[in-house]
Amino acid sequence: MTGLAVTSLALSHFRSHRAARLVFDGRPVALSGPNGAGKTNVLEAVSLLSPGRGLRRAAAEEIARRPEAIGWKVTAAVAGLSGPHEVETWAEGTAARQVRLDGKAATQVTLGRVLRVLWLVPAMDRLWIEPAEGRRRFLDRIALSFFPDHAQAALDYEKAMRERNRLLKDQVADPHWYGALEARMAEAGAVLSANRRAALDRLAAAQGADSAFPRATLELLHPEGEPGDLAQALAEGRRRDMAAGRSLLGPHRTDLAAVYAAKGVPAAQASTGEQKALLISLILANARALAADLGRAPVLLLDEVAAHLDPGRRAALYDEICALGAQALMTGTEAGLFDSLGERGQSFHVAEEGGLSRISG
Questions:
Q1: Are residues 122 and 133 in the same domain?
Q2: CATH number (domain holding residue 20)
Q3: What angle do CA 115, 85, 71 make, to 5 degrees?
Q4: Model confidence, pTM
Q5: Cα–Cα distance between 210 and 311 in angstroms, integer?
Q6: Which residue, among 132, 12, 7, 43, has the nearest Cα to 350 in the 3D structure?
Q7: In DSSP terms, which residues pair with 19 in a beta bridge?
Q8: Are residues 160 and 247 in the same domain?
Q9: For a Cys-Cys bond, which of 22, 54, 194, 262 suits 47, CB 3.0-4.6 Å?
Q10: 25, 344 Cβ separation under 8 angstroms
């Protein structure tokens, strides 16, 4: 199976890269070099070829190379779902991020219909023990990979909830101000909840029994319960919400629970290594399910993933990536971490010289 792929990537004033250009051939990519050299910045640039704020969740103005701060740009040629495309995304000064697809202005949501990108970064290592917000983001990235409309539903829900919260904080009691907002929250919330449930079903079916990585049993948790009629529940809860100054019920409160299936141990109580292995297992399951849907594997971004695995697990990870036919961009401090990938992958070295990132391959 041939996966979706980035075939060329050009960076301009992007983080530590004043100018860089890489050409890929669809095989997995190993980026090695010392910490701080700019390896993760390459992965972040690729993550911005999908909807959202990328793997660092950075605001557009935070990405521009310092001290110039004149803006930044990423240009990529991709082998996408409907064929080859050129994607450009950039921001100037403090302006919002912009997108152009094949020379025409486009929205970020459109990117999800061109390319599917999944990622795993060290900041996610604490996923199972951090507050629920991080797990919701993780879950929503998975749902978005299956359902491009998930991004718009999330935007619609958040906008309506912000407006409702403003009314609550201002102690507005007139019910006529709330009805339309609560209806919009209920409509968008139904899409979010349905997509999340469907995404977990897809992961459960795609976790490979013969994988070197452990299965996870996943469950959605609703602290306040999941109402059958969200609009009605919001209307009935206005007095309580007004006292709190925010909406206390809805899919923005959903949590994700995981259990290490073979041991029956909640992920939060598993060892650090087991938690990492569960995350890798879920990313691989997500990729398998997408490959089954689309006939092509998604692009994977795996930051410093090899450093947390013993040699056997590293080799197993590379085998599974190659079996999927996925283009995976992986980073590591030493080239030797990718020895078992061998000729199945491309290798690049990233170094810092005089405050600039340099890439050689």
A1: no
A2: 3.40.50.300
A3: 85
A4: 0.92
A5: 18
A6: 43
A7: 12
A8: yes
A9: 54
A10: no
